Amino acid sequence: MKLKHAILTLICTINYAMAQNARFVHQGIIEFEKKINIYALLKDQAKRYPDNFWSAQALEQYQKNNPQFKTLKSELIFKNDLTLFNPMADESTNNSWANNFASAKQNNIILTNLKSGTGINQKSVYEETYLVKDSIRKINWKITDEFRTIAGYDCRRANALIMDSIYVVAFYAESIPISGGPETFSGLPGMILGVALPREHITWFATGVKDVEIADDKLKAPTKGKPVSKKQLSDILKGALKDWGNYASDILKAADM
């Protein structure tokens, strides 16, 4: 019993020492990669619209000549309660029409104030640019006991539904105690370093975290675009896409991400 007690005491001492020396990151820059499975998107389109251009032959031809995934890069600058999501320029040299999928783009520059629960989103929708000022998305996360390492950080898994039907898997790092994340994903007790939308065939995962000081002028709100609320933008898009049939739902879904 004495030996068992001594071992337990040693374990507790080690855990306490590790907790005391753990470094919590409150500001820095996170580099993300967004990956879109174009093959899967095309297969979904072929099933949903069997009579249109997407024949099995066209899909097979695309798979022979084009990569499965499209990769887009972005960065998330964060300092305490402020985050700025900023997409990088698309470096892809593949000009295939598959790049016209609304979900295969990055159209949002977002400044989020986690303390006030508000965000300013400069959103490009085809040839138009809007400045959406509204409250941030409320997500009812369910935290699990699953863990994985992302960009050198221990992350815990959480699941949720957004927009009533889109299943979301997220991984957050408690050692970055800021409830932000890429795009409009937030609301967990730590920074979100990984997001997957399995049915949409899209993921965002951090590839690196720079633990650096951030000057206040690096967190400026975007200013370009027509000022609108989320509802106003939704009404504008629904009106513009009223004759697009089922294709409109894909565009509206991507615009609300």
Give the DSSP E fraction (strand runs of 2 or more residues): 35-45%
Low-confidence stretches: 3-21
Number of helices in the DSSP assignment: 5
- Mean pLDDT score, rounded? 85
Spatial order of strands in the largest sheet: 7-8-9-10-11-1-2-3-4-5-6-12
Q: Biggest sheet, open or closed, and with what strands and sense? A: 12 strands, mixed
Order of helices and strands: HEHHEEEEEEEEEEEHH
Organism: Pedobacter suwonensis
Protein name: GLPGLI family protein
Keywords: Signal
Quickly list its features.
single chain, 257 residues, alpha+beta, outer membrane lipoprotein receptor (LolB), chain A, 12 strands, 24% helix
What does this structure look like?
A twelve-stranded mixed sheet has the order 7-8-9-10-11-1-2-3-4-5-6-12. 24% of the residues lie in helices and 37% in strands. It has one domain: outer membrane lipoprotein receptor (LolB), chain A. The protein has 257 residues and is of the alpha+beta class. The radius of gyration is 21 Å and the shape is globular. The chain contains five helices and twelve strands. The N terminus is likely disordered.
Short description:
24% of the residues lie in helices and 37% in strands.
Chain-wise SSE layout:
Elements: H1 2-21, E1 27-37, H2 38-48, H3 56-65, E2 69-79, E3 82-87, E4 108-113, E5 118-125, E6 128-135, E7 142-150, E8 153-162, E9 166-173, E10 191-197, E11 202-210, E12 226-228, H4 230-240, H5 247-255
Parallel strand pairs: 6-12
Antiparallel strand pairs: 1-2, 1-11, 2-3, 3-4, 4-5, 5-6, 7-8, 8-9, 9-10, 10-11
